[in-house]
Write a structure and sequence with these properties.
single chain, 276 residues, mainly alpha, MetI-like fold, 11 helices
């Protein structure tokens, strides 16, 4: 009895690492929402007379190579990177989870179709395929989300298929079938709630990957286009000034790193919480 109570207690409280991760994510969201509103600068307006100014009471992190306030661009980039990364992971999650659940539960021809489609996508090198799609669709956030969705659904489909295959042989699923519950309803109400935790954990890790891929593409010039502020693009623009004005490249890199750490902490914490 004591063991059951301790397990329930552990399940009702998120691990500390998850709380830290959510707290950092909340800070990012608040900075992204209110930071650009409170600072009286246009993130895209250049002023060559103010270029590469050091930090001051007016420009807290100085200005960049075009005289734009660096802090406002750093915060404004939150509005680009985080929503795009979450969207680029969310749509593949929805599509891949649905296809994987159907393939794993119904099997036979459905499973064959989904598995072969996944094999076809994985037959191409991921980053090469992504670059080809982005070039074909054009640069920008929408193109990146579409390209990521076309590729990343495979991971969710395979993960969900494996979980559903494991769960559909359990006694509680057999009991639901005995009651005469339709197969689709058994899948939705009994199987999927038990399969989704692993998908959610994978989703958090996938968001980290998506923000890094988006930044990498922007760094190479095929992602978010200037003058829009984006962390990867800011790193690329600050690279020539790394020795003289290191903050221009280091600060957006730190924003990426801390965001990745936050999502990793959330994923690890949720994994512990679901296993408790």
């Amino acid at each position: 009895m004591e063991q059951v109570q301790s397990t329930k207690a552990a399940r009702t409280h998120l691990p500390g690492k998850a709380k830290v991760g959510f707290a950092i994510l909340a800070v990012y969201v608040l900075l992204g929402v209110f930071g650009p509103i409170l600072l009286p600068f246009d993130p895209d307006k250049a002023n060559v007379l103010q270029r590469l100014k050091p930090p001051s009471s007016t420009h807290w992190l100085g200005t960049d190579q075009l005289g734009r306030d660096f802090l406002i661009r750093l915060l404004y980039a939150i509005r680009i990177d985080i929503p795009v990364a979450f969207a680029a992971a969310f749509f593949p999650m929805v599509i891949g989870t649905a296809l994987g659940a159907i393939a794993g539960y119904y099997g036979k021809f459905t499973d064959l179709i989904v598995s072969r489609a996944a094999d076809m996508v994985q037959a191409f090198p991921v980053y090469v395929f992504l670059l080809v799609l982005v070039f074909a669709l054009g640069s920008g956030a929408t193109s990146f989300i579409i390209a990521a969705t076309a590729i990343a659904w495979v991971g969710y489909a395979r993960l969900t298929r494996g979980e559903v295959l494991r769960l559909k042989g359990q006694e509680f699923v057999a009991a639901a079938r005995v009651t005469g519950l339709p197969e689709w309803k058994t899948l939705v109400t009994h199987v999927m709630p038990n399969a989704l935790p692993q998908t959610l954990i994978y989703f958090m890790s996938d968001v980290v990957l998506m923000v890094l891929v988006l930044s990498s593409l922007s760094f190479l010039g095929v992602g978010i286009q200037p003058p829009t502020a984006e962390w990867g693009r800011m790193i690329s623009e600050g690279q020539p000034f790394l020795h003289s004005h290191w903050r221009l490249a280091v600060a957006p890199g730190l924003m990426l790193m801390v965001f990745g750490i936050a999502l990793s902490l959330i994923a690890d914490g949720l994994d512990e919480w679901f296993r408790a």
